[in-house]
Amino acid sequence: MFSSFWRSIDRFSVQHFKCVISELQKVKVVNEHNREYVVDLLQSIVEIVTYGDRQDPLIFECFMEHQVLADFVRILKTNENSKIDAPLLQYLSIMIQNMDSEQAIYYCFSNGYINNIISHPYKFDGGDLASYYVSFLRAISGKINGDTLCLLVKVHGDAVVSFPLYTEALRFAYHEEKMIQTAIRSLVLNIYNVSDDMVYQFILTPPVSEYFSDLVHRLRDLCFCLDTILYDKGEIEIQKRKNGLILQSDKIVDELYYFKDILSVGKPRLTKLVTENLLNGLVFPALFSLLVSKDNDVYLLSLHYILCPAFFKLLVEEALLTMWRVLSCIIF
């Protein structure tokens, strides 16, 4: 009913936009009785703002004047198990993805509204909310650059003390859904490519920097799993063993390419830390195990994946060259 009402008049006028905003501001709490109405309001606002960003600057001026993002935050906080979180995140993602105006992006990232939405204590209960949340984070990361990134971090003195977009994203780094993992990695690489020295100091300092050691441990565990399948003495069907080997091999290759993508960012401090984690957490222990092992077959296949010329060049060569350039500048 409400949906047909909004569509029966000029939906893209400033006057109508003010009416929709007024209706949203009248909502004191979101529950199962008014959820659909609130969803219609959110959808209308996002559609009008998206239109106004390209066609009518007065619409976005109205959006800023009435601090509509503050109402989005309020709607989240007054949610009474109405499951309004998912559609709100979905519409926000659409709005941010379709913004072309630098002024609009700058405003949305200012005033802490986006960070409040990112940091909201959502209840991820295995439904679709995680997908909508990660899509929201990725939409934000797709709009950041050297000028807007500073709006999403909290700084105390000369140090970044909080970066919700990055730290909250890492919570989903090993999500069971492959699409979510891929989205998070894309987001992370976007951040690495636009970060300045202050942000890198935050990213490369514990406990946040533990992400890199976790990545190495994940790669190591995948190698161990590959060894387990290869050397299993049980009666596993040949086709089942083959499928298991292919699956684990593909996972290892994916991890190696992700490491390559990180190293290809070309930031010396990032390269140094990632390389140290790879050498200390994977390469050196594997080589040591090979040297002291009485069974020459143990870990052989995993080592081939990590240390054979093709993968060594793919993964480590670029990192070592970057480190050598840095050391050369210091020594000479």
Automatic annotation (TrEMBL):
Q: Which GO terms describe its cellular component?
A: Golgi apparatus; late endosome
Question: Which domain of life does this protein belong to?
Answer: Eukaryota
Q: Which of UniProt's keywords are assigned here?
A: Autophagy
Q: Where is the FPL domain?
A: 42-192
Q: Does the keyword Transport apply?
A: no
Cite the InterPro entries for this sequence. Answer: CLEC16A/TT9 (IPR039272), CLEC16A/TT9_N (IPR019155)
Name any Gene Ontology BP term: autophagy
**PANTHER family according to UniProt:** PROTEIN CLEC16A
Protein name per its UniProtKB record: FPL domain-containing protein
